[in-house]
Amino acid sequence: MLLHPYHHLIPRALRPCLKWGLFALPLVLLSHCKPAEQTAAAEETGPPEDNRFTKVVLTQPGELDEPMEMTFLDGGRRVLFVERKGGVKLVDTETNRVKQVGTIPVNTIYTNKEGQTRPAEEGLMGVVAHPDFATNHWIYLYYADPDEPKHVLARWELRGDTLDQRTKKVVLEIPTQREECCHTGGGMVFDKEGNLFLTVGNNTVNPQSGSSNLDERPGHENSDDQRTAGNTNDLRGKILRIHPEPDGSYTIPEGNLFPVGTEKTRPEIYTMGHRNPWRPTLDSKTGYLYWGEVGPDASEDTEEWGPRGYDEFNQAREAGFFGWPYFIGDNKPYFDYDHANEQVGAPFDTAHVINDSPNNTGLRELPAPHKAFIWYPYGPSEEFPLVGSAGRNATGGPVFRQADFTNAARPFPRYFEGKWLIVDFMRGWIMAVTMDENGNYESMERFLPGESFSSAIDMDFSPTGDLYVLEYGSAWFRGNDNARLVRIEYNAGNRKPQVMASADKLAGALPLQIKLSSEGTKDYDKYDQGALTYQWQVTGPDGNATTYDEANPTVTFEQPGTYQAQLTVTDTKGEKNSQSLEVKAGNAPPQVTLDLTQGNQSFFFPNQPLTYAVQVSDQEDGSLADGSIQPPQVAVNFDYVPESFDPIEIAQNHRNAEEAAARFVAGTALMAQSDCKSCHQLDTRSIGPSYQEVAAKYKNDKNAPDYLANKVISGGSGVWGEHAMSAHPQLSNEDAHTMVRYILSLNDAQPQRLPLQGTYTPQVPEGESGKGGYLLRAAYTDKGAGQVPALTSEAVVVLRNPALVPEAADVKESTQLMITPGRAFYMVGDQSHLGYRQLDLTGVKQVMCRVQVSPRSGSLGGVIEVRLDAPDGTLIGKTDTLAPIQPQGWRQPPTEAVAPLEPTQGRHDVYFVFRNPEAKTDRFVMNVVELEFQNTDAPPAKGVASN
User: Fold this and answer.
1) According to the annotation, is 671 in a ligand binding site?
2) Sequence-ordered list of residues with C-beta below 8 angstroms from that of 59, at least 6 positions apart, any chain
3) How far is CA 10 from the centre of its chain?
């Protein structure tokens, strides 16, 4: 490339513009070389930093009881939402106050032909405000009539904070059956012309096969989706489009699927062939309709029924047929199964779709089906791998257009222009879906991957530009403390402070003096660093508040009660953020100690006795020593924690002295990470049976662990009702068994409490690998003090497995982890080292170092030194020199090198230093597989970590 003669005088940012050579420079300078503007444009169109988004929770636990759908009023200042049991509530987004403005009588019960009842999905399902709400005050509600089997779309006037019952006008009624579950829909959205879109579920039984619903036998009409979703003359299993009129009636807009007057059709139908369509949205630029569609439960393809189940996110550019119950996903066909004769027929043909069911009252020939826009099963998706695997429940979400928010306070950045933001109720992610100029799918990416939005039943942009997520909560058919309304704010310029509030103690006797702390509070804007202002407000039980204008005040409480301490941090631009603590004054927490007087206090050595003693004292209750506290009031539990679980994390989640054994808490942790809580509760029914019911059913069944673990992974139906159990193919067999062991443990009596002192011999439970750890725990709950509630304190000793992997080291110096084609953790260069904090070496005789020194990787080998407290600390042991070993085959088994240790008492930082003076800073010394601390009186742990 020719360089301009004054190349060195041209600003560096403009030099790339010289690629056209010497003579092009004037033209380039006069055209597009505007680095400042280009940089600004790049920042505006590129992906924004996640820390520019703030997640604000607007509601408190207990304020929402089964929220279903929301709509925005007064430019987004108020959010109106409905609850399934009939509540209509308003949230003031400036004060965060929630107020109930009305109640709609609704049905929430199914009653089958035998007279048996059960909770129904239906109730008050949907709400939307009229586009001209500011002048006409109209809101539309979709609900299950309390007396007759029908779903009703009706209009009311909302005046101020009152839903005027006298203004009710019924717009549309849809006859339903309410003998059997399921699927109601209820999502609504208006377009620019004032047309209202309404999603309507199929109102059909979920088959035990978890597949399509095609049962044409007499008496099984509720199990035939050809009578609803596949019926052109029925409004169920559809998305309707109507134009509501001022008098409460409606007209049919042009462009619906069937023109007015077409025989055996309903003109309200815009799209048909839906199983359970949820929240609809419209692209304001293209007019395309988008929605989430919940699919059936089958976890595998079968030769009997056809494809496995898929959830879908769909796009309709015009009126059309979307396949159900004949096709799913990208038009995967079901088989024409004859239930009467149990014969499998031919797969349905997309070119010739025939509804010949005796339950069909509509057209026999159906339109050609549209493919799903996005589809995914329980297991991993080949087409859309980013969606992951697990339970699924496609909700929907909005398409972002900047033109919709010209006067908004906080619009999302241009990067999201034309992207569809979608959320899954079960999986908790939000995806930003990118489409090309024609609306075709291009890609997707996680939005705020560090956040979870589980139980999201509705999501939309407010006129303010903020994204709102309405979260239903964990369990079906009940109010949930974790139901909430969340606002996601985009901060284009100045960012709010990220607040961390803490205290040196949160409870104590009077007078109680605590030190409040703002340590950890930060602001991502450089100009705010070191310039934040802090204010603590401490509010007592009488509502009186005291303010402290400092970051870390010391506060003394003289009166008993529960106090709220709120820290508010303000930046230089006036932006604020807050976090609160609860302080209980007037009751000192108990003091609990658990001392091991014999045995190693870091490692679990099977069959090696531990001598222990528990002491408890409480300022108000007395102590064990003086007899005021009796031994039965103290819980002492020692238990095994399975491999792959962090005993410390288990301890933090094992707070109740009456809980099951700690090893079963691993099962509860796994279930908390999955979607189990959406369908099951401990002792009450939700969609599925309670865990106690399952435990009782399989109490004496020796095959139950294997059977139930397989069912957790593969899914199933027919045992507890018409709801199929979701498949969980992402779970390992071991994790599924861990979950099942917890459930079956509910048959057992409460865990045996140990005496307050004595000897305990820890053992590996049957069926466990022996690679886990042990959790020793003592806990006491005091009696409370006056108006101050009871407090629980505990002492926990965690005994980790003596076989440590290098990735878990607290200090890693000059290391390299490689995961392709297999895991390998290399020590690089002379004196590279690993360090583990505060290990008790009492009784430890040697360390078995399992390593690989392979010429194939260029490893040079060397000596492993064991040192105390520092990499150059006291040498207490070392291995022989380990030389390279030529592998026999592709996978080389690890070499076991023993480092005998000098007798050492107590806790120390322990360092493994890898020595080879010939190893330069870029040369591998060896690959470390495992470092096992061994007591010669105990056999070494079985197995070697995979490499």
Assistant:
1) no
2) 91, 96, 98, 483, 484, 485
3) 52
Q: In whole angstroms, what is the distance from residue 31 CA to residue 27 CA? A: 6
The topology under which CATH files domain 502-585 is: Immunoglobulin-like (2.60.40)
680 in a known ligand binding site: yes
Tens of pLDDT along 401-424? 999 999 898 999 999 999 999 999
Angle at alpha carbon of residue 163, lines to 157 and 165, rounded to 5°: 80
For residue 784, give every residue at least 6 positions away whose Cβ sits within 8 Å of its Cβ, in sequence order, or none: 587, 790, 791
Q: Positive or negative, the Cα torsion across 27, 31, 33, 34? A: positive
Distance CA(690)–CA(29), nearest Å, equals 72
Strand order in the sheet with 484-490: 53-57, 484-490, 467-471, 456-461
d(CA 739, CA 722): 23
Q: Are 730 and 714 in contact (CB under 8 A)?
A: no
200-218 pLDDT tens trace: 999 999 887 888 999 999 9
Q: Which of 29-43, 580-594, 685-699, 857-871 has the lowest mean pLDDT?
A: 29-43
d(CA 200, CA 238): 5
Q: What pTM did the predictor assign?
A: 0.65
**CA-angle at 691, arms to 300 and 741, nearest 5°:** 75
Question: Distances in Å between the alpha carbon of 566 and those of 538, 549, 569, 581, 753?
Answer: 6, 12, 10, 6, 40
Phi, psi at 790, each rounded to 5°: -65, 150
Strand order in the sheet with 533-539: 507-508, 576-585, 561-570, 533-539, 545-548
The answer to whether 725 is a known ligand-binding residue is: yes
DSSP per position, 448-460: STT---TTEEEEE
In this structure, the number of other CB atoms found within 10 A of the CB of residue 38 comes to 12
Q: How many CB atoms lie within 10 A of CB 349?
A: 13
> In terms of C-beta distances under 8 Å and separation of at least 24 residues, what long-range contacts does 399-403 make, across chains too?
399/281, 399/282, 399/283, 399/284, 399/288, 399/290, 400/461, 401/283, 401/284, 401/285, 403/284, 403/285
DSSP letters for 243-255: EE-TTS-EE--TT
Tell me how far CA of residue 583 lies from CA of 540, 653, 709, in angstroms. Answer: 9, 21, 43
Tokens of 797: 């000793």
Residue 354 token pair: 């025939």
Instruction: Please choose, from the candidates 380, 360, 41, the residue with its C-alpha nearest in 3D space to the C-alpha of residue 224.
Output: 360
**Residues forming a β-bridge with 143:** 124, 152
Coil/strand/helix, residue 152: strand
64 and 84 Cβ atoms separated by less than 8 Å: no
Backbone angles phi, psi at 178, to 5 degrees: -130, 35
Domain locations along the chain: 1-32, 186-390, 397-476+483-492, 502-585, 591-639+751-801, 803-934
Per-residue pLDDT tens over the stretch 556-597: 999 999 999 999 999 999 999 999 899 999 999 999 999 998
Distance CA 268, CA 153 (A): 13
Q: Which of 167, 155, 139 is nearest to 79 (CA)?
A: 139
CATH of 803-934, one of 3.90.1310.10, 2.30.40.10, 2.60.120.260, 3.40.109.10: 2.60.120.260
